[in-house]
Write a structure and sequence with these properties.
250 residues; homooctamer; four-stranded mixed β-sheet; five-stranded parallel β-sheet; Rossmann fold; alpha/beta; 2 domains
């Protein structure tokens, strides 16, 4: 229901006397929330399509994160990213069903079952040290209902390894490319397959790797057109973008 | 047809004597081109789905660009970006049917008709000075077969203007957000709609706008998750990414 | 009393014999201190308008800070910023009445009562991780005699939350906006209200957030004109600026 | 009149039958514009308090700027910044009463008279090459109804020149400090006077002056607390901030 | 002949009376020049192995460059880089036999014949806009006596084109890789062939290409080990390095 | 054996019936690996020319590194770089014959004997704090079969020390120059000797040394032409490049 | 005469009736100017020690510079730096005796004769393209009364040329080193001679030369201790610093 | 004695038979060391003018530093900078007479007595957190024979404190200014006194202070001409430069 429709209905109700002025005023204050609001919308969305709330745990206390899992876990799946092992211990003690993924540093709580969508997301890494970022992306995809497959260690220095996995990449609906150092893998894959590609630069490397900015800028200037990029080490954001694409399908 | 299938067929042909060794050798050399090659693939792709070759005109001579339009224009649509008015004059003199868009600085030549796909792409700009980048994106979308609508001047300083156009944004399959200065529009739209968003930072602004890097980094760190980003002023790249998504649909 | 008035009075006194030459010389040496001097001025100012001395504790020893609280606390309020929990323990052991605020990392000692001014300062944060900076600002405002209200977690990703608090913002005399990542909140608020806005970028975020420089540059290039900016994480400085504005009123 | 008051009045009118549903709907669509909208608000604000529309001329065509002066000039004052001499010629030919300030590169058109407020703004420059930025600030202040006085060439290399003008600075309600190179003047003035200070770094200098970023960062880290900063060379923005403070007074 | 040998011979000559003290003194002053000196050494080296003097023309006047060609051309080959068309006209008018290469912006004068060495240098470019840098490298190689072959437009976006030319690359003694944007070609080639690779980043690209620094840093952090790098657009330097390697062979 | 030769042989075998179609298919899948593949190629190369596998230990677990040494050590030499003392203890406990070099932070395991090549590589350092990088380079050279000599502490501040060692430098086939701070040593040596020079900037220094970027950029802009550069502190990469040159000789 | 002495004398005069109060007040206002003031001090200084006023012409109009030469030229020497040929023409037309140095881009007017001091300043350049900066330094030294000798083109790539000129350097009281690219010459000279060294980085070079910042940072991190540095291309500033040292001598 | 004189004498000796060829050869090898050599020269210089060897302790082991103090301490004063408390303990245990300064982090060993020169060096700091750098400078000055006086906490925020100490500054031969944040103090002092000024930026501050680079660039672009600058936190280097100036006097 569109906002103008909502307003038209409300005014008709006031005119008809079904709503008095103060009640209409209260509804007018609330209406944007039905369209735009945070907490309420999020619960509705969760009941409707299985999307969980997401908690960025860095900079929160274990108590805060545990409380979020307790309260939200009654209504929906819950996903937290950037969770240290210490914080995970604390939260798991308070919320028994919560699962910790030490490689991807995620905490997850599934309410009922995940409603799987069709369409697979391929997550490709250049090296083994890119795996934590890929794992964060994989867990996020699955919590959002999209199946994901990780293809690791197919970096440009031994490009034949990639060619052997092209079949897998070509079956995916969206491809997430995770690479540090010079980030060349995004360009190479972008020149080989037609799917949407979301590139994640990683902070792997030293010196001129510039904590990931060389890979970031390299991906942004990729000679393969149509590659889009997210923040350094942001596996979660790449998964969000990939799932937004996959969610376009019914 | 997959590469292994091609190889199996080829080997069977050699075994059967349908292909002698040297011919098979030539086919083996050529096969990757059928899968991966540049010029040939591009022609095939153009005949199959109306996708044009794209010419990055900056750094090429007018003669080179005119020759590309002449030769390619017989087989497919042709799109050139970053074309100055002077170069456009030269190419149009040589190739009469070529169209110049001075705002978006594109040259286009359509072979037959564009095969329109379903699914619209919305291109939103923060200010009027972002329009050239938006226009480059719009022309690219259309040359790739996706209809695009431009919603301009709905920047964050007068955010109510955006709210009035949300209806339009919600009807699009993908949204391209074009903004300079602090680039906040991508975050605001990302918080309001569920579609995939491709953000294009522009070099509009001075001083701390850092020639577009402030918008670029702002979009990469957007608090609205799932926003992906392309290079500064790269309307063409954003359109490629958006069309790759739209092309997922039959 | 103006410096020229002071000099005129002094010279008249010397001419009249009320001051001999050496005493006049001493007064001349001291006069600038009455106008410009550090320790003395600060005490006078404190007695006159309740403004405390401010101690930047980072890089000082606990002993030094304790000594400052002991000596200054007899004459005026005292405020120290960037105080670690360890330093706070040490100072509180030496100076019993001193209060530690662990969120804002401030130590305060109030001499008598705070002389409250009219005019409220609103401190708005984009996210919960911006709260330590907001709290430093809030404590500073109050030690300077201005009441402050904190409105937290109204960032751009869920912009309706902000609209619900506009009433509060519109009642404030000055608004401090505290935001990390892309810092878009300053632009959005700057487009909605007429008051002076002091923006504080925070170091919240990673990668392209550039330790707060993306928010800093984004705020400096805000499309909402009239936003002014202080250093990254500098809640104290923003409060100083806001109080300087509030102090313009009698 | 507050937004809730407006809504209450509107609903009462619909209930009473003074407004039918579609008319109420139209008013509801417009209401946010009365509070938040761009063009309309600006006209209302201009009629109410003499504030002009402001046009950032860089990146606009002379025709566009002339049209804005023609259309807006009927209703309100008009101010355009960053206007080249060529553009000014064009606009003045089309709009006879428009005034060009070549130093500050502003175009102005005054509708009726400027409604002067009490409270003066002092604009201080470190050197003569900072004058264009100061002049942009001065014209902006005056178009917004605040009188401004420029104190030029009192930079730190000859600091006694500043001391002679302290009397003038102390009479102002707000002080704008314009300085390039190392930008030290903001710190020195911030240590001498109690008023709000808005610092404008300029791009004056070469090499390590970093096109104004050294002054920008120097002002942001000023040892004099409470100095706020705007973008490099942004005299207009500093004037907006200063006038927002002056406008707090009736 | 080693420096100690030279000194021993000289001292023996003085002892024997073949050299008087002042003549020995003059020789001692000159000796380092025979080993280390600029002008003299260069002439000797040129007569010995055909190596030309090299003139960096940027920042020199046409008169200076013409004089160098006139004077040096009598003794050796001469090579000048970064020569504008205007300067070339001037020099060619003064020195009839000098050849201008407008693509590589070089001026060359060959004294007698080039003494060709065995061993070929392959110069590979990612795109056509990298050709000027490749041409500067090619001319430099040839003036230094090494034959060079240019393989252009085999960038990563269409990687099969590279595979077709691997045979050529594998025949070279050294490979120079010239690429802009993300510079991925150096990594891909470095993973495929065993020869020494000298990578030249180019300033091709915009925005996040950072005027060649993205390619520079990408090449420095190449996941293919053993790639070495020269300055942005420095085709001359890459050729020097490649020829130093080729010159190791007799 | 070249790839085309391999294919020709394979096709002839299929035609002759020596290989059936599926076996040929498997060989075709494997063939690139024989030329380009990761694990297999490395074993073959090791058996053929004594080149070891190289493990970048940073970001790997001690268990992973120990497993690599156990498995690879049966077939070839093994070299690991960036190995902490703790990791070394763990690996040595699991693999008794492995040698740890605490200065160069390398772990090495030699299978049989190193097959020494002719041709020495000189590794020159500016200061004693550059020694760890030089040692990493030295160990790498030796594991790759090239003898290396380290000449340390001949930096520019006492340039006569260098002159005394020129004899040693002139006997080397390739020279690796390791220097931090301003990195001037590469320019000085590049002006004195004709050999290929690979420069390694180090992160020695503070402040304006910019963690090695000042040395990096200084070496890239060296006034001595033909100097090539690798990443900061990348002694391993410099050794790879030097050995690639030395390996050109039979 | 010290400031306290001045004040004591003044007060005694007022007490004695030699000065009435208002006259004393005027003297008190002026006194700081006698110590610190700009215009007056400069004239006095010029009469006393031959030091000229210095005009930074960049950003001034030809009319302003001509006026300064006309007015100041009556009292003292005048020096202007960064003067274009066009501005020089204009000023020379208005002020006949003014001399233009096109290499150093200075305008000078000598009042009477220069009072030469003892002690020579050596100005050393790495290359010929550094000469404009060296010439600006030379002219400035001479206008300040210190003789200067320029030793050019003794850069590190041919270091023996420097050794031949050490005799000249060792006779100077202060050495100014002017170098671009990697700026290594400052370190080499700093290791060879005991005098104070003022290093001037120049913007000579491209790419990784970073417009002079590589030389700047290289000089700041010089391994030869005691080298001090001024801004990029700031020959004037280096000469000021050198003359301040030379002026310490009677 | 000049190098040419040395050579002339040597040759005459060989001619006369006072030196045979091999002895002359040895002398020729050694001569440069007498002029330029590191270890020998340093000992000679120490015996001649009391200058100590200087050890940069960062990156050295306690054992190495202790050995240097033991060996060098027999011949000369010894100074080590950047010494941690742990290293100091170790060295003092091995070398009983060595003195540790914990504020300046220096270790010193005085051989006999310091030979004091005339001429004082003033070291001025902006704040108390700049004191460690000032103390490193003070100790260095004294070990080099120049007396130094520290004037602390006279920063720009309370500029009257500086004016009270001008008398002290004016008595010094050279002034070292130590300041962090915006580094304005160097400009203010440079405008008030005629002596040579060596400015040391410090890493005091956060955010836009950029770890000292804002102060560094501010000092380099100081509007007070003739200020020279050393690396961030480099109190040792500033003292070296100041002593080189003071050493010009007999």
């Amino acid at each position: 229901m569109d906002m103008l429709d909502s307003l038209r209905e409300l005014l008709a109700g006031v005119k008809a006397g079904d709503l008095d002025v103060e009640a209409g005023l209260a509804r007018l204050r609330d209406l944007p929330y039905l369209e735009l609001g945070h907490t309420k919308i999020d619960l509705h969305r969760s009941l409707r399509n299985g999307f969980p709330e997401v908690v960025y745990a860095a900079g929160k206390t274990p108590e805060q994160v545990a409380e979020i899992f307790t309260r939200m876990g009654e209504h929906s799946h819950v996903l937290a990213t950037r969770v240290s092992a210490e914080m995970a211990c604390h939260v798991q003690a308070a919320c028994p069903g919560v699962v910790y993924n030490p490689l991807g540093r995620t905490l997850t709580s599934v309410k009922g079952e995940i409603a799987w969508r069709e369409g697979e997301i391929a997550i490709v890494t250049a090296g083994t040290s890119d795996l934590p970022v890929a794992e964060e992306a994989r867990v996020t995809c699955e919590m959002f209902g999209s199946r994901a497959v990780v293809v690791s260690d197919v970096g440009v220095a031994g490009i034949h390894r990639l060619f052997d996995r092209l079949h897998t990449l070509r079956q995916a609906r969206v491809i997430i490319v995770v690479a540090g150092m010079e980030g060349a893998l995004a360009s190479v894959i972008g020149g080989l397959v037609p799917q949407p590609i979301v590139a994640v630069p990683t902070s792997v490397g030293y010196g001129a790797a510039l904590s990931g900015f060389t890979a970031l800028c390299g991906m942004l200037t990729s000679c393969a057109s149509g590659v889009t990029v997210v923040n350094i080490d942001n596996g979660f954001g790449a998964a969000c973008a990939a799932c937004k694409i996959n969610n376009l399908f019914p």
